[in-house]
Specification:
mainly beta
């Protein structure tokens, strides 16, 4: 599987809040999707996001 996400990458995701997110941790799941921990604001607040393979393919970098 090609790496779609990596730490430090700035992305916009299909169902995430408006704005760019910074990937802190990313790993592929066993179903072809991804589990991400992203920082959404300057206070270092992190959010866990689970993406299906289709959702991950629609990300913007």
């Amino acid at each position: 599987m090609a790496e779609l996400f990596e730490p430090g990458q700035r992305v916009r995701l299909p169902h995430a809040p408006d704005g760019w997110l910074t990937v802190d941790f990313a790993r592929a799941d066993s179903f072809g999707g991804w589990i991400l921990y992203v920082g959404a604001d300057e206070r270092d607040t992190f959010h866990k996001i689970s993406l299906t393979a289709d959702e991950a393919a629609r990300r913007r970098c």
